[in-house]
Amino acid sequence: MSPNELSTATAVELAAALRAKTMSAVELTQACLATIARENPVLNAAITVCGEQAIEEATAADTLLRRGDGGTLTGIPLLHKDIFCTRDVATTCASRMLENFIPPYDATVVSRLRAAGTIMLGKTNMDEFAMGSSTETSVFGETRNPWNIHCVPGGSSGGTAAAVAAGFTPLGTGTDTGGSIRQPASLCGITGLKPTYGRVSRLGIIAFASSLDQAGPMTRTAEDAALMLQVMSGLDPGDSTSADIEVPDFRANLGDPISGLKIGIPKEYFSSSLEPRVAASIQAALVELEREGAELVDIDLPHTDQGIPTYYIIAPAEASANLSRYDGVRFGYRCEAPTDLNDLYERSRTEGFGEEVKRRILVGTYALSTGFYDAYFKKAQQVRRLISEDFNTAFETCDVIAGPAAPGVAFGLGTKTTDPLAMYLEDIYTLSVNLAGLPGISVPAGLLDGMPVGLQLIGRAFDEATLLRVAHRFQLRTDHHLARPVPTAVNP
Ligand code: GLN
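Structure tokens for the assembled complex are given below, as produced in the milestone run.
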């Protein structure tokens, strides 16, 4: 493989090349590091690069491979979103609050992927504490979209999405609380899967909203997503919300036909909030699924409009509780020369958190306060139930739901930063899925004026296998996922 092919190949292809000995894990890792060195100064997708450590890990992988040992992921490089605790490697959540935090342990996702033989190239940029849809609130500065560097990559896992799209790595991790894997995957033209709540352990993932957060794979293909999900999934005694439910072989039935499968099309997802040309791309993708033998059926998700207000009570409420631990005492940023304990708390939090994080803490604390709890938090929990029931009803008549992942393509840097509500609308098609705890995937569905569009597929709880199968059949039939941005040097 040429260096160029190396940095655009899938993990499955790279694994075959490693086994065929046409290249080594060290060569592959060096090629990824070279792409990062060349592209990252412009894109700012990676905020920590572990060059030396990666080469050491690759050397160990080569030893295994030479002996014919190891699994499919042995020697395959990856990047982790900087929300996953990584032993001895800075984990900042892109916040001043955690700028100097070096965890003493690995998140379960990290240790499982490490045990599977992957090479950790480093950590990726994100919105501060995963709050945002554009990767512009990072204390390390914004990430740029490799398809157009004047546009955002989406968020909050925008660093990983840009990195996979730009050829830094075939694989990356993200987390999705309201859309943070699927929306950046859509805006950067890659495949991003949010698993069912409980499928993947949250241990060692810095908490945003605990009843919504879920980690997932960000890759170039559905097949690679299946490969990663296989390793990431399963019960973890260290996370009481991780599900004690069998993990199927996600690759076993990937290629099975989808004829007869019923795909539900919610009319609420094709309303005026959807950019008409994006709607046309999604319709074209649906025609392809029909040609694969799937049957399209109309469904209703009547509480779709209530998704955003409900999410923006529940997520900030949980965030305000989770973020109360950053008090300047136990860990995290501490202000200089506090005059007393209150001054220490106040100034550490004032100086350590960015504006959007503070907005969420204020909203969340308000919604949980005596006198407002019933009107806001309790009401939001009730509406959450209705949203969940909408999906249950829909899944009585269909097997998978399809629609857009985001209301438009990538938008210009800075165009939504002063208008939080406009930013919140980015997740209109994704966050209900988190409220209902269901799995969802975004797959590339073509380009509009050179910018990617994502098709979202939503599945029944713990039925990631069907989502992956539909996505894989779509990728066998179309070549949208093969499109790559040109290197930034020729993309001014
Ligand atoms: N954009 C949404 C928010 O800001 C979702 C973020 C996420 O999924 N982490 O809360």
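The pocket of glutamine is lined by residues 130-133, 156, 176-180, 208, 315, 427 (CB under 6 Å). The mean pLDDT is 96. Further analysis is deferred to the final report.
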